[in-house]
Amino acid sequence: MRRQGSGKKVARVANSYRGVALAGGGPLGAIYEIGALVALEEALDGLDLIGCDVYVGVSSGSFLAAGLANGLSAKAMHQMFIESELADDPFEPDLLLQPAFGEFASRIAQVPKLLAPAAKEYFEHGGSTGFFESFSRLARALPTGIFDNTRVGTYLTRLLSGPARTNDFRQLKHKLFLVATDIDTGASVPFGAPGWDDVPISRAVQASAALPGLFPPVEIGGRYYVDGALTKTLHASVGLREGVKLLLCVNPLVPFDARLAASKKHRKAISVVQGGLPSIMSQTFRTLIYSRMRSGMERYRKDFPDADIVLFEPDRDDVEMFFTNVFSYSDRRRLCEHAYQRTRDGLRHRAEVRKVLAKHGIRINDEVLFDEQRTLSKPAPSDRRRSQSALGLTANQLEQTLDQLETVLHGCAKRLHDRHPI
Predict the structure, then answer these.
(1) Rg value, the chain, Cα
(2) Residue 340, exposed/middle/buried by CB under 10 A (0-12, 13-18, 19+)?
(3) How many C-beta atoms lie closer than 10 Å to residue 284's C-beta?
(4) Strands 175-182 and 188-191, how do they pair?
């Protein structure tokens, strides 16, 4: 049943300083955040996501924060990153998967310099120091990252050079902060803040999203920077210190609760261990960053009692979000639609969010929110026909396979009976 809303925009409350903070989470995190942002963009009257006062982005969230600050709506970024074949300048997934040949070459060039003293030390001591101990210095020749993110920077430079956009923090109408980590000190650096605002936005995004091990550190002003999530997941405090009174936060990665998922679906719980090392590593990473974020949220509420923080994130029992590779980009439409619908569902059932938003002149549009026919991306009729055809083909194949399996099992049972009659 559809609930009716007035459809009218609500006037903005005076002195309601608003901000958006977007956490990281690899390509999967960005896909989730796009779906969530489109849901908020559609369902919240009185909120203009590209008209907020402060934007904070970390890691993959920095891409989207930079887009919002530049006037790119969530729907526009959905077309650019998800429905990429429809965009004039789409973001292609292979931009993230270019091998870092330059890094490989520079490291290989160091091998002769490292190999000679290692061999000398080993043979001078007659091997008493141990092979691995003597040659451990060769580890310095290992590349600092597998993939090259310079093409991402080039794409962003081109994107932010378009009409009514800028690659300069100082020329933005609204404040933008992109957080990275100084790899040599472990300190967080908010690019866009005074003293850090002369860095091109595209370069700051590169630095903020340079996940160690996957991408080499990004050099800026003689310093090297990596993913901003190393110190904090969300860095909401950056926006709160700017005086934000309503901060909307999106965090795409939460630890998975297998027992909760099983109880809701009335199934036997399956341990994360059964997923092997990738699942273990994913759960470990999610648990660490989530614990830090939760403790940070509690501290923010004490340090900034006049500010309201509204957090949007997946449920702990969201199987789809957990068992999808964090770096997957192939199922982006399905996952983005999933995030879109889960965010809409959360808005329907969170009465406290309605009250908080109302304080800041924002109303949830129930006519939009309870429209059960609303989807983020609708397949074309030809796509639906292909899907139905594929479904029919799959069903036929399954039926044939089961018939073959039944025949094989029947044959095995007959042979077993012939050999060992009862």
Answers:
(1) 26
(2) buried
(3) 12
(4) antiparallel
Q: Which residues contact 80 (CB under 8 A, 6 or more apart)?
A: 72, 87, 89, 90, 91
Backbone φ and ψ of 74, nearest 5°: -60, -40
Query: What gap in Å lies between CA 74 and CA 349, rounded to an integer?
Result: 23
Smallest CA-to-CA distance from 229 within 23, 62, 22, 21 is with 23
The Cα 82–Cα 85 span in angstroms is: 8
pLDDT tens for 340-363 read 999 999 999 899 999 999 999 999
Cα distance between residue 279 and residue 46, in whole Å: 41
Phi and psi torsions of 34, nearest 5°? -60, -45
State pLDDT tens for residues 232-291: 888 999 999 999 999 999 999 999 998 888 887 657 777 888 888 888 988 898 898 888
Q: How far apart are CA 225 and CA 246, in angstroms?
A: 30
> In Å, how far from its chain's centre is CA 249?
13
